[in-house]
Design brief:
It contains 22 helices and 27 strands. The protein has five domains: 116 residues, Tumour Suppressor Smad4, CATH 2.60.200.20; 188 residues, Beta-Lactamase; 172 residues, Rossmann fold; 81 residues, Helicase, Ruva Protein, domain 3 (Orthogonal Bundle), CATH 1.10.8; 49 residues, Orthogonal Bundle (Arc Repressor Mutant, subunit A), CATH 1.10.10.60. The chain has 651 residues and is an alpha+beta fold. α2 packs parallel to α7, α12 crosses α14 and α21 crosses α22.
């Protein structure tokens, strides 16, 4: 038995938290004890610096083990005046000793729990044991009785047909009750072991189910008798303990369960013990015999396989469910990409669509140039989904999102052991996109040292994973995108010239939103309908004044900024309400104050219009550093038309 006594920092402490009605001490004989703030913990502390499930104490093969559950403020053990931090212990665990004091949470004002071990010990008199090595002899003896052999065959057949864990427990319990007339209770404890466990204390044997003869399942799992459990695990043997009540002197854990006799049999996988099968006799009709131990040991072989398979089946089901959810997500994303084709009726966008039609069914590399937020990935997906590669994968990677070493592994893959953390082989995006399209966004941000490897993949159609000695052939269509001037990057030595020309086989310039203002009503309406449907708040539309303001704004963030603005509007609006100018963001409404900023002098209408027109022309020229061609393009007029305007206004 282990006794946990709260001595400071929690229950009833002045200035600290308090858990009304909670005991200051807890006696535990079996199972798991959780310590924390969560109400379902066995020892609850209503203290903010203690985590929900802060730590747990579990019966391990060598004693009671304390484990920290990655708590926010940590767990320490004070032993002989020294403080042991579980954060630096293997598996964040430590075997407890009598007199240890636990510190949970805040270093200055921790919750303190004193540990002590009771005098009682389940030392049932062991009558018979059978080691692993004796299983063959036991089987040979069992097979001499044809009736027993037939019964064992039927039992094995029934056990092997079960897959779900609860069903396996039901079937095994039924077979045990059939073979052992004196058995009244069957309890199964299975090992729970962390994947990163580095110590024996990380192994936990947790009761997962109890079955009662004639009564189905028990209300809760019956604790495993400690002395039998320890001997089964430590000596890797099947154990028969006879008449515990008479021979032991009525110790608490035996008397609490009123066990007259018990058998503990290991469940194993290969050389590892994965659980314990305990069969109890709680009736007065007599204790178990050596023959009962032998039969249960033979039966445990089929039971061991059944439990291993049930746990594996459970993991496969979880993995399949996770895979199903991932597939659903990926299919939804692919569907949205297919449906999310670029929108635009302006002359600038029609020119882009016309160029797209010429290149989609070729293998040439496409380089999409444009400002941030213009929809470069949307155009890239259009290149893929309108091509003959549409049935293969479209894979996207932002070259600026990962550091150099991770980007190389992401693109080209790696071999196991090629660097720290490479525990398995990994396919790169080039292999995943084989037969499809790989979109490299922000390709101008790619590290200079990786560019030769990308150039080889483009020229030769070969990739070599990190740490590999051989190359792999891939058939991948590359679509790159950048908001940088790659020609200037080449001149500055930040981008390879040969890679630049290899990428720029077919350049596509995506116009900014200010050059396609006639598309703003179409785009805004599309986003308004989309987010109205998504948020369940349909809007009536845009008022004429609001749309005029939207079309007058410069949209430095382009289509992405417009989408974000409409999303904000849908959240702000009442259902079926029209968007009015006052609903728009202040930075967009600045266009309304144009007349105030120009402040034309009083005069005729013509004179005031000329003043406004002159101000607009001068502002446009200033923005484009007096570049008349760019200014004319922004204003939607020809260069000659701009010259005429300037001349007529005396500029």
């Amino acid at each position: 038995m282990i006794r946990l006594e709260v001595v400071a920092g929690a229950v009833g402490e002045e200035g600290q938290g308090r858990t009304d009605g909670a005991a200051r001490a807890l006696d535990v004989r079996e199972g798991v004890v959780r310590l924390g703030r969560a109400p379902d913990c066995e020892l609850v502390f209503d203290v903010l610096h203690v985590s929900g499930v802060h730590a747990s104490i579990t019966l391990a093969p060598d004693g009671w083990a304390l484990r920290d559950h990655q708590s926010t403020n940590g767990t320490r053990v004070v032993r002989d005046g020294a403080r042991i931090d579980l954060a630096v212990q293997p598996g964040h665990e430590l075997l407890l000793s009598d007199g240890d004091e636990l510190e949970l949470g805040d270093l200055e004002h921790p919750v303190r729990v004193r540990v002590s071990f009771g005098d009682e010990e389940d030392s049932s008199r062991i009558v018979e044991t059978r080691t692993f090595e004796e299983v063959a002899n036991v089987e040979a003896q069992a097979t001499t009785d044809r009736a027993v052999l037939q019964k064992l065959y039927e039992a094995t057949k029934a056990i092997s047909a079960a897959l779900e864990l609860d069903v396996v427990i039901d079937v095994i319990a039924a077979q045990v009750f059939g073979f052992l007339p004196r058995a009244t209770h069957v309890t199964v404890a299975l090992r729970e072991e962390d994947e990163d466990a580095t110590s024996k204390t990380a192994m936990r044997y947790v009761p997962v189910g109890t079955r009662v003869r004639g009564g189905g399942s028990a209300s809760e799992a019956i604790p495993i008798t400690r002395s039998v459990f320890k001997k089964v695990v430590a000596e890797r043997s099947a154990v028969l303990a006879a008449d515990a009540k008479r021979d032991v002197g009525e110790t608490a854990s035996i008397m609490g369960a009123r066990i007259l006799s018990t058998i503990g049999v290991p469940l194993w996988q290969g050389e590892e013990i994965v659980g314990v099968l305990q069969v109890d006799n709680r009736a007065s009709s007599g204790i178990f015999k050596a023959q009962d131990l032998d039969l249960l040991l033979v039966l445990s072989q089929a039971a061991s396989s059944a439990f291993v398979h049930a746990r594996l089946y459970q993991r496969v089901k979880v993995a399949e469910e996770r895979q199903r959810k991932e597939n659903t997500y990926l299919k939804g994303r692919e569907r949205s990409r297919r449906e999310g084709m670029p929108i635009g009726e302006s002359q600038a966008m029609q020119s882009v669509f016309k160029q797209l039609k010429k290149v989609v069914d070729t293998r040439v590399t496409v380089l999409i140039e444009g400002e941030t937020g213009t929809g470069k990935e949307l155009i890239a997906s259009a290149v893929h989904y309108t091509s003959i590669r549409r049935d293969k994968l479209f894979v996207a990677q932002n070259c600026a999102a990962l550091p150099e070493n991770l980007l190389e592994s992401e693109l080209f893959g790696h071999k196991r052991g090629s660097f720290t953390g490479a525990t398995d082989d990994k396919k790169g995006l080039f292999e995943l996109a084989d037969g499809g399209t790989l979109f490299l966004d922000e390709i101008g941000e790619m590290p200079l040292t990786l560019q030769p490897k990308l150039l080889r993949a483009l020229q030769e159609g070969e990739v070599r994973p990190v740490g590999a000695t051989v190359t792999k052939k891939v058939d991948v269509r590359i679509v790159g995108a950048t908001n940088r001037d790659l020609e200037k990057e080449v001149a500055a030595g930040r981008f390879r010239e040969d890679l630049y020309y290899r990428l720029r086989v077919f350049p596509l310039r995506l116009p900014p939103l200010r050059e396609r203002r006639e598309d703003i009503p179409l785009l805004a309406g599309h986003f308004l309908e989309r987010y109205g449907r998504e948020f369940g708040k349909p809007a009536a539309g845009f008022s004429q004044q609001a749309m005029e303001v939207l079309q007058s704004y410069k949209w430095p963030g382009n289509v992405r900024e417009l989408e974000n603005e409409v999303q904000r509007l849908v959240i702000q609006l009442d259902p079926n309400e029209f968007v009015q100018p006052e609903h728009l963001s202040p930075r967009i409404r600045q266009v309304e104050n144009l007349i105030d900023r120009v402040h034309p002098a009083k005069g005729t209408l013509r004179e005031m219009i000329e003043q406004v027109e002159k101000w607009i022309l001068l502002e446009a020229l200033r923005e484009h550093d007096n570049n008349k061609s760019a200014t004319a393009k922004t204003l939607g007029i020809t260069r000659e038309g701009l010259h005429k305007k300037l001349k007529s206004l005396g500029l």
